[in-house]
Amino acid sequence: MHITQLNRECLLHLFSFLDKNSRKNLAKTCHKLLEVFQDPLLWSLLNFHSPVELKKDNFLLGPALKYLSICWYSERVKVCNIEDWMKNSFQKDFCNRHENIVSDFLLDVCNRCPNLLSLTLSGCGHVTDDCILQVLKHCPNLQSLKLENCVRISDHTLEAVTLHGRSLRTLHVDFCRNVTHAGLERVRQKCPSVMLRAERSANMIPDSKPEKKLILEKASRKLVQL
Q: Could you tell me if 88 and 138 lie in one domain?
């Protein structure tokens, strides 16, 4: 039996085991497989690991999307989370080339994916509070928001959670050094049902001497205990 003789449900199941590139390549072989590739039901989960992946046409955004993860782990992309005043000219040029990539992508998600349940962003140094605000407004079913090492995220995002995150159950702001203890406490008070985690956040000073980091960590633990 040829693969094209399988029914739509079986083909969707087979496609679900493939990564985005493999799905795209298989879709090029015939019209029937292209239709399967374009079926919104196939795209309930998306994972991205580099800025280049967001520019490819090997995926589909739509109402079926429930789980989205954008995580940068390469050393080059980590440059975006260095303080601007510490970047050399090469690093600044590198950042400028993809400054709006994630932000523009999230705006597309806001417009096309109203049923999003989970959003994870890690190392996305150019994502702003306004991006997260728009996601919370346009994706009212969002239950999990996990942010890690997103340098521009601040208490404005925490305030947006208290105002628009009515479905939110999990909030992580790990290594988001521009959120404060006051902002975290506001979330705890106004959204007691939200599971809040903020490891190495709240007044964390980046790129400081080890002695300073140790002092800040001890102070942070004492505040948590109080």
A: yes
Residue in 40, 47, 37, 48 with CA at minimum distance from that of residue 65:
40
- pLDDT tens digits, residue range 185-208? 999 999 999 999 999 887 665 444
Q: Exposed/middle/buried for 103, CB within 10 Å: 0-12, 13-18, 19+?
A: middle
**Per residue in 116-173, pLDDT tens?**
999 999 988 889 999 999 999 999 999 999 999 898 999 999 999 999 999 999 999 9
Q: Please give the Cα distance from 204 to 201 (Å, whole number).
A: 5
Within a domain: 65: yes
**Domain of 87, in residue numbers:** 44-221
Whole-model pTM: value is 0.81
Between CA 102 and CA 219 the distance in angstroms is: 34
Residues 36 and 112 in one domain: no
Q: Minimal CA–CA distance to 175: which of 212, 210, 145, 147?
A: 147
